[in-house]
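Tutorial handout. Part one gives the primary structure; part two gives the three-dimensional structure as C-alpha coordinates.
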Amino acid sequence: MSASAPAPRRGAPITDIASLRADFPGLHQQVRGKPLAYLDNAASSQCPVPVLDAMLRQQKMNHANVHRGVHELSSRATDAYEGARERIRAYINAASGTEIVYTRGTTESINLVASSLGGSLLGAGDEVLVTEMEHHSNIVPWQLVCERTGARLVPAPITERGELDVDAFERLLTERTRIVAVGHVSNALGTINPLRELIDKAHAAGAVVLVDGAQAMPHMRVDVRALDCDFYAFSGHKMYAPTGIGVLYGRETLLDRMPPYQGGGEMILTVSFDRSVWNSLPYKFEAGTPNVTGAVALGAAVDYLGGIDFDAVTEHERALLDYASERLLELDGARIIGTARHKAGVLSFVLGSIHAHDLGTIVDREGVAIRTGHHCAMPVMERFGVPATARASFALYNSREDVDRLAAGLRKALEIFA
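Part two.
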Protein backbone atom coordinates (compact mmCIF):
# COMPACT_ATOMS: atom_id res chain seq x y z
CA MET A 1 0.00 0.00 0.00
CA SER A 2 1.25 3.48 -0.89
CA ALA A 3 2.38 5.61 2.04
CA SER A 4 -0.09 8.24 0.82
CA ALA A 5 -3.11 5.95 1.11
CA PRO A 6 -5.10 5.84 4.36
CA ALA A 7 -4.97 2.59 6.26
CA PRO A 8 -8.24 0.67 6.42
CA ARG A 9 -9.71 -0.21 9.80
CA ARG A 10 -8.50 -3.48 11.28
CA GLY A 11 -10.12 -5.98 13.57
CA ALA A 12 -13.76 -6.76 14.24
CA PRO A 13 -16.40 -4.37 12.88
CA ILE A 14 -17.40 -1.64 15.33
CA THR A 15 -20.81 -2.20 16.92
CA ASP A 16 -20.76 0.66 19.44
CA ILE A 17 -22.22 3.23 17.05
CA ALA A 18 -22.59 5.93 19.71
CA SER A 19 -18.82 5.99 20.20
CA LEU A 20 -18.31 7.07 16.59
CA ARG A 21 -19.79 10.49 17.26
CA ALA A 22 -16.38 11.58 18.57
CA ASP A 23 -14.94 11.05 15.08
CA PHE A 24 -16.95 13.95 13.62
CA PRO A 25 -15.58 17.36 14.65
CA GLY A 26 -18.31 19.25 12.81
CA LEU A 27 -20.87 18.00 15.33
CA HIS A 28 -19.04 19.48 18.32
CA GLN A 29 -19.86 23.13 17.86
CA GLN A 30 -22.49 25.64 18.83
CA VAL A 31 -24.95 27.22 16.41
CA ARG A 32 -26.70 30.40 17.54
CA GLY A 33 -25.46 29.74 21.04
CA LYS A 34 -26.86 26.19 21.18
CA PRO A 35 -25.13 22.82 20.71
CA LEU A 36 -25.60 21.66 17.13
CA ALA A 37 -28.12 18.91 16.40
CA TYR A 38 -27.37 18.04 12.78
CA LEU A 39 -30.36 16.34 11.14
CA ASP A 40 -29.76 17.18 7.48
CA ASN A 41 -27.80 14.09 6.53
CA ALA A 42 -29.86 13.22 3.45
CA ALA A 43 -28.53 16.46 1.95
CA SER A 44 -24.92 16.09 3.13
CA SER A 45 -23.38 14.14 5.98
CA GLN A 46 -20.49 15.33 8.13
CA CYS A 47 -16.92 14.10 7.55
CA PRO A 48 -15.04 11.98 10.13
CA VAL A 49 -11.44 12.68 11.12
CA PRO A 50 -9.93 9.90 8.94
CA VAL A 51 -11.52 11.46 5.85
CA LEU A 52 -10.41 14.97 6.81
CA ASP A 53 -6.89 13.67 7.48
CA ALA A 54 -6.76 11.99 4.08
CA MET A 55 -7.82 15.22 2.37
CA LEU A 56 -5.24 17.28 4.24
CA ARG A 57 -2.45 14.78 3.61
CA GLN A 58 -3.22 14.73 -0.12
CA GLN A 59 -3.24 18.52 -0.35
CA LYS A 60 -0.20 19.07 1.85
CA MET A 61 2.17 16.37 0.65
CA ASN A 62 0.89 14.83 -2.59
CA HIS A 63 -0.77 17.68 -4.48
CA ALA A 64 -0.08 16.90 -8.13
CA ASN A 65 -1.90 15.78 -11.23
CA VAL A 66 -2.33 12.05 -11.79
CA HIS A 67 -1.17 9.76 -14.60
CA ARG A 68 1.64 10.44 -17.06
CA GLY A 69 3.71 12.42 -14.53
CA VAL A 70 7.16 10.96 -13.95
CA HIS A 71 7.98 12.90 -10.79
CA GLU A 72 7.48 11.59 -7.25
CA LEU A 73 4.47 13.70 -6.27
CA SER A 74 2.56 12.71 -9.39
CA SER A 75 3.40 9.08 -8.69
CA ARG A 76 2.11 9.36 -5.12
CA ALA A 77 -1.06 11.13 -6.24
CA THR A 78 -1.70 8.48 -8.88
CA ASP A 79 -1.18 5.67 -6.37
CA ALA A 80 -3.62 7.28 -3.93
CA TYR A 81 -6.19 8.03 -6.65
CA GLU A 82 -6.14 4.57 -8.17
CA GLY A 83 -5.85 2.94 -4.75
CA ALA A 84 -9.10 4.62 -3.77
CA ARG A 85 -10.75 3.32 -6.93
CA GLU A 86 -9.76 -0.22 -6.01
CA ARG A 87 -11.10 0.13 -2.45
CA ILE A 88 -14.39 1.52 -3.78
CA ARG A 89 -14.58 -1.41 -6.21
CA ALA A 90 -14.09 -3.89 -3.40
CA TYR A 91 -16.56 -2.11 -1.13
CA ILE A 92 -19.46 -2.41 -3.60
CA ASN A 93 -18.19 -5.76 -4.98
CA ALA A 94 -17.78 -4.65 -8.59
CA ALA A 95 -16.01 -7.16 -10.79
CA SER A 96 -13.25 -4.81 -11.94
CA GLY A 97 -11.84 -1.34 -11.42
CA THR A 98 -12.74 -0.65 -15.05
CA GLU A 99 -16.38 -0.55 -13.85
CA ILE A 100 -15.71 2.32 -11.40
CA VAL A 101 -15.99 5.73 -13.08
CA TYR A 102 -15.24 8.83 -11.02
CA THR A 103 -17.78 11.64 -11.46
CA ARG A 104 -18.77 14.79 -9.57
CA GLY A 105 -21.65 12.96 -7.93
CA THR A 106 -24.88 11.06 -8.52
CA THR A 107 -26.29 13.76 -10.78
CA GLU A 108 -23.37 13.63 -13.20
CA SER A 109 -23.36 9.84 -13.10
CA ILE A 110 -27.01 9.71 -14.19
CA ASN A 111 -26.48 12.39 -16.83
CA LEU A 112 -23.56 10.38 -18.19
CA VAL A 113 -25.70 7.28 -18.66
CA ALA A 114 -28.70 9.23 -19.99
CA SER A 115 -26.56 11.07 -22.55
CA SER A 116 -24.21 8.28 -23.59
CA LEU A 117 -26.34 5.14 -23.34
CA GLY A 118 -29.71 6.81 -23.73
CA GLY A 119 -28.60 8.85 -26.71
CA SER A 120 -27.43 5.73 -28.54
CA LEU A 121 -30.04 3.21 -27.33
CA LEU A 122 -33.30 5.15 -27.41
CA GLY A 123 -35.40 5.96 -30.45
CA ALA A 124 -38.88 7.17 -31.30
CA GLY A 125 -41.52 5.15 -29.45
CA ASP A 126 -39.11 3.73 -26.88
CA GLU A 127 -39.76 4.27 -23.17
CA VAL A 128 -37.79 5.05 -20.02
CA LEU A 129 -39.54 3.84 -16.87
CA VAL A 130 -39.00 5.76 -13.63
CA THR A 131 -41.05 6.07 -10.42
CA GLU A 132 -43.05 8.92 -8.94
CA MET A 133 -40.66 9.09 -5.97
CA GLU A 134 -37.53 9.93 -7.95
CA HIS A 135 -35.19 12.83 -7.23
CA HIS A 136 -35.12 15.41 -10.02
CA SER A 137 -31.66 14.10 -10.94
CA ASN A 138 -33.29 10.82 -11.96
CA ILE A 139 -36.06 12.53 -13.93
CA VAL A 140 -34.69 15.54 -15.80
CA PRO A 141 -31.73 13.82 -17.54
CA TRP A 142 -34.16 11.28 -18.96
CA GLN A 143 -36.56 14.02 -20.06
CA LEU A 144 -33.72 15.69 -21.95
CA VAL A 145 -32.67 12.53 -23.77
CA CYS A 146 -36.31 11.65 -24.51
CA GLU A 147 -36.78 15.07 -26.12
CA ARG A 148 -33.74 14.44 -28.33
CA THR A 149 -34.63 10.89 -29.34
CA GLY A 150 -38.43 10.84 -29.44
CA ALA A 151 -38.64 8.38 -26.57
CA ARG A 152 -41.17 8.75 -23.74
CA LEU A 153 -40.70 9.03 -19.98
CA VAL A 154 -43.15 6.85 -18.03
CA PRO A 155 -43.65 7.22 -14.23
CA ALA A 156 -44.71 4.25 -12.11
CA PRO A 157 -47.12 5.30 -9.33
CA ILE A 158 -46.60 5.18 -5.57
CA THR A 159 -49.15 4.40 -2.88
CA GLU A 160 -50.51 6.54 -0.03
CA ARG A 161 -47.79 5.08 2.18
CA GLY A 162 -45.12 6.23 -0.25
CA GLU A 163 -44.31 2.73 -1.46
CA LEU A 164 -43.87 1.82 -5.09
CA ASP A 165 -46.90 0.10 -6.60
CA VAL A 166 -44.96 -2.94 -7.79
CA ASP A 167 -47.90 -4.41 -9.72
CA ALA A 168 -48.31 -1.15 -11.64
CA PHE A 169 -44.55 -1.02 -12.21
CA GLU A 170 -44.67 -4.50 -13.75
CA ARG A 171 -47.65 -3.60 -15.94
CA LEU A 172 -45.78 -0.58 -17.27
CA LEU A 173 -42.85 -2.75 -18.35
CA THR A 174 -43.42 -3.48 -22.04
CA GLU A 175 -41.43 -4.36 -25.13
CA ARG A 176 -40.94 -0.60 -25.57
CA THR A 177 -39.17 -0.20 -22.22
CA ARG A 178 -35.47 0.21 -22.92
CA ILE A 179 -34.24 1.71 -19.64
CA VAL A 180 -35.49 1.56 -16.04
CA ALA A 181 -34.16 4.23 -13.67
CA VAL A 182 -35.08 3.78 -10.01
CA GLY A 183 -33.93 5.08 -6.65
CA HIS A 184 -32.71 2.58 -4.07
CA VAL A 185 -33.93 4.85 -1.23
CA SER A 186 -36.21 7.88 -1.63
CA ASN A 187 -34.63 11.09 -0.39
CA ALA A 188 -38.06 12.68 0.24
CA LEU A 189 -39.84 9.70 1.83
CA GLY A 190 -37.16 7.33 3.10
CA THR A 191 -38.77 4.42 1.25
CA ILE A 192 -36.44 1.50 0.57
CA ASN A 193 -37.44 -0.04 -2.73
CA PRO A 194 -37.45 -3.85 -3.30
CA LEU A 195 -34.57 -3.36 -5.67
CA ARG A 196 -33.63 -6.92 -6.63
CA GLU A 197 -37.27 -7.72 -7.43
CA LEU A 198 -37.55 -4.62 -9.64
CA ILE A 199 -34.27 -5.36 -11.40
CA ASP A 200 -35.30 -8.95 -12.13
CA LYS A 201 -38.61 -7.77 -13.60
CA ALA A 202 -36.89 -5.12 -15.70
CA HIS A 203 -34.31 -7.57 -17.05
CA ALA A 204 -37.04 -10.06 -17.89
CA ALA A 205 -38.59 -7.33 -20.03
CA GLY A 206 -35.24 -6.71 -21.73
CA ALA A 207 -34.55 -3.34 -20.09
CA VAL A 208 -31.27 -1.92 -18.78
CA VAL A 209 -31.43 -0.77 -15.14
CA LEU A 210 -29.82 2.27 -13.53
CA VAL A 211 -30.07 2.69 -9.76
CA ASP A 212 -29.81 6.04 -7.99
CA GLY A 213 -28.01 4.88 -4.87
CA ALA A 214 -27.21 8.26 -3.31
CA GLN A 215 -29.42 7.75 -0.26
CA ALA A 216 -28.68 4.05 0.21
CA MET A 217 -24.89 4.09 0.54
CA PRO A 218 -24.70 5.63 4.06
CA HIS A 219 -27.37 3.31 5.46
CA MET A 220 -26.53 -0.16 4.11
CA ARG A 221 -23.87 -2.24 2.44
CA VAL A 222 -24.45 -2.36 -1.30
CA ASP A 223 -23.34 -5.31 -3.44
CA VAL A 224 -23.82 -4.42 -7.10
CA ARG A 225 -23.29 -7.98 -8.29
CA ALA A 226 -25.84 -9.37 -5.82
CA LEU A 227 -28.31 -6.71 -7.00
CA ASP A 228 -27.46 -7.52 -10.65
CA CYS A 229 -27.98 -3.87 -11.62
CA ASP A 230 -26.42 -2.51 -14.81
CA PHE A 231 -25.53 0.90 -13.34
CA TYR A 232 -25.35 2.19 -9.77
CA ALA A 233 -24.73 5.90 -9.07
CA PHE A 234 -23.75 7.48 -5.76
CA SER A 235 -22.20 10.59 -4.20
CA GLY A 236 -19.42 10.99 -1.66
CA HIS A 237 -21.05 13.75 0.34
CA LYS A 238 -23.95 11.52 1.38
CA MET A 239 -21.54 8.92 2.80
CA TYR A 240 -19.19 10.97 4.99
CA ALA A 241 -16.92 12.22 2.18
CA PRO A 242 -16.70 15.74 0.69
CA THR A 243 -18.84 17.25 -2.06
CA GLY A 244 -17.78 17.18 -5.70
CA ILE A 245 -16.90 13.49 -5.93
CA GLY A 246 -19.05 10.52 -6.85
CA VAL A 247 -19.04 7.22 -8.68
CA LEU A 248 -20.81 5.56 -11.53
CA TYR A 249 -20.61 1.78 -11.37
CA GLY A 250 -21.38 0.36 -14.78
CA ARG A 251 -21.39 -3.14 -16.18
CA GLU A 252 -18.20 -3.36 -18.25
CA THR A 253 -19.91 -4.74 -21.35
CA LEU A 254 -22.25 -1.72 -21.41
CA LEU A 255 -19.61 0.90 -20.63
CA ASP A 256 -17.37 -0.55 -23.30
CA ARG A 257 -19.86 0.07 -26.10
CA MET A 258 -21.09 3.45 -24.87
CA PRO A 259 -19.66 6.59 -26.56
CA PRO A 260 -17.76 9.13 -24.43
CA TYR A 261 -19.78 11.61 -22.41
CA GLN A 262 -17.28 14.49 -22.59
CA GLY A 263 -14.19 15.18 -24.66
CA GLY A 264 -10.78 16.44 -23.57
CA GLY A 265 -7.61 15.22 -21.96
CA GLU A 266 -7.29 11.79 -20.33
CA MET A 267 -10.21 10.24 -22.22
CA ILE A 268 -8.17 9.76 -25.41
CA LEU A 269 -5.31 7.58 -26.62
CA THR A 270 -4.52 9.56 -29.77
CA VAL A 271 -5.80 12.81 -31.24
CA SER A 272 -5.48 14.20 -34.75
CA PHE A 273 -7.59 16.60 -36.75
CA ASP A 274 -8.97 13.66 -38.69
CA ARG A 275 -10.03 11.47 -35.77
CA SER A 276 -9.40 10.58 -32.15
CA VAL A 277 -9.09 7.19 -30.47
CA TRP A 278 -10.73 6.81 -27.07
CA ASN A 279 -8.90 5.64 -23.98
CA SER A 280 -9.72 2.37 -22.27
CA LEU A 281 -12.19 2.06 -19.40
CA PRO A 282 -12.79 3.77 -17.08
CA TYR A 283 -10.73 6.70 -18.41
CA LYS A 284 -12.90 7.04 -21.52
CA PHE A 285 -15.46 8.69 -19.22
CA GLU A 286 -13.04 10.76 -17.10
CA ALA A 287 -12.20 13.75 -19.28
CA GLY A 288 -10.04 16.50 -17.83
CA THR A 289 -8.14 16.94 -14.59
CA PRO A 290 -9.94 14.84 -11.95
CA ASN A 291 -10.86 15.65 -8.37
CA VAL A 292 -7.90 13.76 -6.95
CA THR A 293 -8.38 14.88 -3.36
CA GLY A 294 -12.09 14.05 -3.51
CA ALA A 295 -11.35 10.55 -4.79
CA VAL A 296 -8.77 9.97 -2.05
CA ALA A 297 -11.26 11.22 0.54
CA LEU A 298 -13.98 8.94 -0.81
CA GLY A 299 -11.57 6.03 -0.52
CA ALA A 300 -10.99 7.00 3.12
CA ALA A 301 -14.77 7.18 3.70
CA VAL A 302 -15.14 3.68 2.27
CA ASP A 303 -12.41 2.48 4.64
CA TYR A 304 -14.25 4.11 7.54
CA LEU A 305 -17.59 2.55 6.62
CA GLY A 306 -15.92 -0.78 6.02
CA GLY A 307 -14.93 -0.90 9.68
CA ILE A 308 -18.50 -0.54 10.95
CA ASP A 309 -21.07 -3.25 11.61
CA PHE A 310 -23.97 -2.22 9.36
CA ASP A 311 -26.40 -4.40 11.28
CA ALA A 312 -25.67 -2.13 14.25
CA VAL A 313 -26.08 0.97 12.06
CA THR A 314 -29.44 -0.29 10.79
CA GLU A 315 -30.68 -1.06 14.30
CA HIS A 316 -29.50 2.33 15.59
CA GLU A 317 -31.07 4.35 12.77
CA ARG A 318 -34.29 2.34 12.86
CA ALA A 319 -34.66 3.02 16.58
CA LEU A 320 -34.02 6.73 16.01
CA LEU A 321 -36.59 6.88 13.23
CA ASP A 322 -39.20 5.13 15.39
CA TYR A 323 -38.47 7.43 18.33
CA ALA A 324 -38.59 10.55 16.16
CA SER A 325 -41.88 9.45 14.61
CA GLU A 326 -43.39 8.96 18.07
CA ARG A 327 -42.18 12.36 19.29
CA LEU A 328 -43.45 14.08 16.17
CA LEU A 329 -46.93 12.56 16.39
CA GLU A 330 -47.28 13.92 19.93
CA LEU A 331 -47.57 17.39 18.33
CA ASP A 332 -50.89 18.85 17.22
CA GLY A 333 -51.31 18.85 13.46
CA ALA A 334 -48.29 16.65 12.72
CA ARG A 335 -48.48 14.50 9.59
CA ILE A 336 -45.72 12.21 8.40
CA ILE A 337 -45.28 12.14 4.62
CA GLY A 338 -44.09 8.65 3.74
CA THR A 339 -44.98 5.75 6.01
CA ALA A 340 -43.50 2.85 4.04
CA ARG A 341 -42.96 -0.38 5.89
CA HIS A 342 -39.30 -0.39 4.89
CA LYS A 343 -37.66 2.98 5.45
CA ALA A 344 -34.22 4.45 5.90
CA GLY A 345 -33.61 7.25 8.41
CA VAL A 346 -35.69 9.96 6.72
CA LEU A 347 -38.65 11.66 8.40
CA SER A 348 -40.57 14.09 6.19
CA PHE A 349 -43.48 15.90 7.80
CA VAL A 350 -45.83 18.85 7.92
CA LEU A 351 -47.03 20.55 11.10
CA GLY A 352 -50.49 22.00 10.82
CA SER A 353 -50.58 25.06 8.57
CA ILE A 354 -47.05 26.20 9.46
CA HIS A 355 -44.95 26.47 6.32
CA ALA A 356 -41.94 24.18 6.22
CA HIS A 357 -39.55 27.09 5.77
CA ASP A 358 -40.86 28.69 8.95
CA LEU A 359 -40.33 25.43 10.81
CA GLY A 360 -36.76 25.23 9.54
CA THR A 361 -36.03 28.81 10.57
CA ILE A 362 -37.42 28.38 14.07
CA VAL A 363 -35.63 25.13 14.87
CA ASP A 364 -32.40 26.59 13.46
CA ARG A 365 -32.62 29.22 16.21
CA GLU A 366 -32.49 26.27 18.62
CA GLY A 367 -29.36 24.87 16.98
CA VAL A 368 -31.22 22.16 15.04
CA ALA A 369 -30.42 21.70 11.35
CA ILE A 370 -33.14 20.18 9.16
CA ARG A 371 -34.02 20.53 5.47
CA THR A 372 -37.18 22.22 4.20
CA GLY A 373 -38.72 22.50 0.73
CA HIS A 374 -39.58 20.07 -2.03
CA HIS A 375 -36.24 18.19 -1.68
CA CYS A 376 -35.78 18.08 -5.46
CA ALA A 377 -38.79 15.77 -5.58
CA MET A 378 -41.65 17.98 -6.73
CA PRO A 379 -43.73 15.07 -8.11
CA VAL A 380 -43.70 13.58 -4.58
CA MET A 381 -45.01 16.83 -3.12
CA GLU A 382 -47.74 16.93 -5.77
CA ARG A 383 -48.65 13.30 -5.06
CA PHE A 384 -49.25 14.08 -1.37
CA GLY A 385 -50.85 17.47 -1.92
CA VAL A 386 -48.27 19.56 -0.04
CA PRO A 387 -46.09 22.42 -1.31
CA ALA A 388 -43.13 21.38 0.84
CA THR A 389 -42.16 19.33 3.86
CA ALA A 390 -39.72 19.61 6.72
CA ARG A 391 -37.26 16.73 6.69
CA ALA A 392 -35.14 15.34 9.50
CA SER A 393 -32.67 12.76 8.27
CA PHE A 394 -30.48 10.59 10.48
CA ALA A 395 -26.94 9.28 10.33
CA LEU A 396 -25.01 6.83 12.46
CA TYR A 397 -23.81 9.67 14.75
CA ASN A 398 -27.26 11.01 15.67
CA SER A 399 -28.84 10.43 19.08
CA ARG A 400 -32.15 10.55 20.92
CA GLU A 401 -31.02 13.88 22.34
CA ASP A 402 -30.93 15.28 18.78
CA VAL A 403 -34.52 14.09 18.33
CA ASP A 404 -35.59 15.65 21.65
CA ARG A 405 -34.02 18.95 20.59
CA LEU A 406 -35.99 18.81 17.32
CA ALA A 407 -39.24 18.07 19.16
CA ALA A 408 -38.63 21.00 21.52
CA GLY A 409 -37.98 23.32 18.58
CA LEU A 410 -41.18 22.22 16.87
CA ARG A 411 -43.15 22.84 20.07
CA LYS A 412 -41.75 26.34 20.08
CA ALA A 413 -42.97 26.78 16.50
CA LEU A 414 -46.47 25.71 17.56
CA GLU A 415 -46.39 28.27 20.39
CA ILE A 416 -45.25 31.04 18.04
CA PHE A 417 -47.96 30.33 15.49
CA ALA A 418 -50.71 29.66 18.03
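Part three, for discussion. The CA atoms of residues 118 and 145 lie 6 Å apart. The domain at 17-43+309-417 is CATH 3.90.1150.10 (Aspartate Aminotransferase, domain 1).
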